[in-house]
Amino acid sequence: MKKLFSILIAFTIAILLVGTVFAQDVVRIGCSTSLTGKLAYEGKASKDGNDFYVAMVNRKGGLNIGGKKYKIDVKYYDDESDVNTTTKLVEKLITEDKIDFIYGPYGSGPGFAASAITEKYKKIIMAMSSSRELYERGFKYLFTCVTPAELYFKSVIYCLSQQNPRPKTLALLFKNDLFNKSAADAIPGYCKENGIEIVYNEKFAPGASDFSTELSVIKAKNPDIIVFLSQAEQFILGAKQMKDLKVNPKAIVTGVAVAEPHLVKALGKDAEYLSGPTLWDPTMKYRDDLFGDSQDYSKEFKKIFGYEPSYHAATNSSSCQALGIAMEKAGSLDVERVRNAMVTLDANTFYGRIRFDEKGRITGRTAPLGQILNGKFTIVYPPEIAVAKTVWPKPAWQ
Amino acid sequence: MLILQNIINGLLLGGLYASVGLGLCLVWGVMNMINLAHGAFIMVGAYVTFWMYHIFKIDPLFTIPFSMAVTFLLGFVAQKYIINFIVKASIFMGLILTFGMEIFLMNVSNLLFSADYRSVTPSYSGAGISLGGILIPYVRLGLCFIALLLTYLLNLFLNKTKTGNAIKATALDKEAAQLVGIHIGKIYTITFAVSCALAGAAGSLIAVITAVSPYMGTIYTFKAALITCLGGLGSIPGLIAGGMAVGLAETLGSYFISPGYKEFIGFVLLVFILILRPEGIMGKKFFAILKQ
Could you confirm whether domain B2-288 is CATH 1.10.760? Predict the structure, then answer.
């Protein structure tokens, strides 16, 4: 009996030793995002972007950190689109699951909360949030590849202001949440720069289910441009009501929802000529060694996930990629070394040039203007990457 | 002119709210249970219409009987085999159970259909009547008409059919109804199923107006509860009044005060009315008393 016991102990030790010898070095990453709830569509698109990057890197054997190959392993939790749940889950990822880095939740609200937790524990978070408020807190471990919200409409307003006949007035109606407010607050400034007068500037509550009054009032003011800023859900209702009430400005502009494929499917022919900014488009020509160019990215993504990626996925992949490059540059998983690598990063990827400013936000990026033409979102400005000409004025609703 | 357009907007919105509140009012008044899954059944009806339009190109109007049938069946099964067990328990159990049902339905929809936003955009969407500059979209007008039709049919069902009368009797006094031979279990099942069918019809109409997604229903449950309280439990015509009141309050509130305070104004109106008349605008006293 004693002999059997000793053999068993020896066997167990041997297995464990063998295990450690062949154990794969792994970078443990955590992500709490909205897989269900109000932001489920955006959350899933983000997750697919993360997973795509991880799959491509692991396919090549993993990241090369300090001479060793590390595979990436991501642990996901569903925060059900609830910010309170986000904070609890991020804390759990850090304290219980002992992850090395965090991929941020989708959205500015959840990101604001999650980054407060990661800063407390000194863990680097790649935020998927564009609102300025997140980055005004002097956090050191917060980085993002998402274009700042206040820059979303810079190119849009400029491009439309140059059209013929020149627009003179603009009406702004936006959803009162962190991201949409951040983007909307910058619009009066851009209008002033370009000689456009704002004739209407109101916000609506996130739960709004009707815009008939607001749109009737806007119609009476007859603006040249209408900016209706919200996520896709409210914009679909808004666009339908604009058609119902025969609101026909020279341009209808919304946020990045315009670049999402499901908008065209939901509105059909009514989606034609809607304008808005995007953060990424498959027609862009930047390249890198992991994904190729944006066309390659799009094709390979479709092969794995079965649908064309929107800018959500690409922005997420790019964020994960930036962190991966920083880890390789630092040659270690130590948070301070990786942080220094992030601060001094200057990488060229399929998404473009990645550099961060002193607040952790990506610099040098603009948001190109696109319009839905022939059922497809097409970039019309700036000229270097435009694929079609801006349609102005927007033809009346059919 | 603008005021007139906004009044019309408010009335049309009221029609939408009335159609949403119809089913909840019925269940609440009869079974003394607030169905928190009401919005989820609206969502199911919306998806039925979307898929029938998308795959078979059937006009949304003609999909209403199908969405009503699907939600009727779902409601029937849910009540008979799940809710029935807690009907005798406190009102709190009903809230918990229907909340759980809502979560279940929403997440199953997310798994089956994904959270992509969809909508039904038939060829006549956006068209409407123009009366001296006031625009009335056909879709919204149709929705009001169907809401009124459903209300009329429900009223007819409750007052002129044996089952309807049995439902009213059960709502008035459960014990007395049993004494005259009414099978309460069957009545509850029919009531809940009819309520879900009405939610399904509302969902079909909503699919044409706005975006369809697995999580679209929650806001409509709240609106339905608001209107039911306002219009008065036990009164179907009161529901129309409640719907119109909230619709007008929201549109005119947005016009005179600010768009940001729209929902707030609806709830302020509710508090105000309930202080003045606790049973709602047209509610009857005995329906509003909670049974032990």
Answer: no
